[in-house]
Amino acid sequence: MEVLGQKVAIVTGAGQGIGFEICRELAKQGTAVILNDIDNTLANRAVESIQKENGNCIACPGDCSDYQFIQEMVQLAVSHFGKLDIAIINAGITLFGDFLTYTPESFKKVMEVNLSGSFFFAQAAANQMKKQGWGGSILFTSSVTGHQAHHQLAAYGMTKAALEMLARNLVIELSSYKITVNTVAPGATETERTMTDPEYHDTWSRITPMGRPAYTQDIAHAALFLVSDKAKHITGQTLIIDGGWTVVSPSPNV
């Protein structure tokens, strides 16, 4: 409670999966959470679930790649909770496709959400934290595909590697304001989306050194540490959470 209690956080892309679990764990620690998802139904359902556990959480559904919406989301934190301490930039989309036939439409969409939205949300959050004067924490969600090549994910992997470089660059820009900027890079993780594949668990259990894919709690616990007061001297870093997969990197298609 002393580490994250009384703080205010925004988490994007949090209607389900990793983002939702991060919100849930933050709320359990006493953090006031604004939960964003582009899907209104998912956002409100997720908030209801957290509130049933006595978490202080409100929904802010909308497109977090939209510049104006980003400003409104930050202002909601200030108007409703009085401040913003933590920004967890988790929203992203994956559009698989062969490099030789990848369309401009798919490329533009991936860049808008994964890069433009992340950049400008970090900017808006940092400006609010600077104004407050006591610092804060920004956390990006990257991916192991930003470290290892993965079939049909050239554009997606490119964006995730870029987010990690953005976090490093922001050390120069934001450290003087006591704002830390870090990244988590999940590997294969069991979520509502991945579990639609009946072979997912067995495949990733076979090729992951620790013997299973990640659970959403594995990612959330790492995220909470990096935005907590216990990590005040950690910035510009990427924490890979993949059960050792990137060390050996066998393809799931083998």
Q: Indicate the CATH architecture.
A: 3-Layer(aba) Sandwich
What do we call the CATH homologous superfamily? NAD(P)-binding Rossmann-like Domain
Radius of gyration: 17 Å
Mean pLDDT score: 95
Write up this protein:
By secondary structure, the chain is an alpha/beta fold. The protein has eight helices and nine strands. The protein is globular, with a radius of gyration of 17 Å.
Q: What is the secondary structure topology, with strand pairs?
A:
Elements: E1 8-11, H1 17-28, E2 32-35, H2 40-52, E3 57-59, H3 67-81, E4 86-89, H4 104-132, E5 136-141, H5 154-174, E6 179-186, E7 189-190, H6 200-207, E8 214-215, H7 216-226, E9 238-241, H8 245-248
Parallel strand pairs: 1-2, 1-4, 2-3, 4-5, 5-6, 6-9, 7-8
Which key phrases capture this entry?
254 residues; alpha/beta; Rossmann fold; seven-stranded parallel beta sheet; two-stranded parallel sheet; 8 helices; 44% helix; globular
